[in-house]
């Protein structure tokens, strides 16, 4: 069970990392045909892409070790192979990522609790239906 959970978490983090690399912003609409194409950036293990991951789990002693292990395991395996490095940022009250956005810093992934997802979407200006 623990192995399946670890695999699921690594897959989820990888999926989030790829979505945070700006896939949505890389869509090119063809006005004449109304179709959109997506071009993914090439990842380079020699020049890894850094992803910031704002996590409330990193701020709590009971969860910190587990989250750091997941991040380190990803960085040492799939991340190293593909050219992605996750940098964890402790965000205990969901305010650090907002302050960093206001300061103009890149905020790639935010760990959020389910009840806050829609409120975060609205407060960050994502008004399109999901």
From TrEMBL:
The signal peptide annotation in the UniProt record is 1-31
Per the record, the domain of life is Bacteria
What keywords sit in the KW lines? Signal
Name of the molecule in the record: Extracellular solute-binding protein
Q: Which organism is it from?
A: Gracilibacillus salinarum
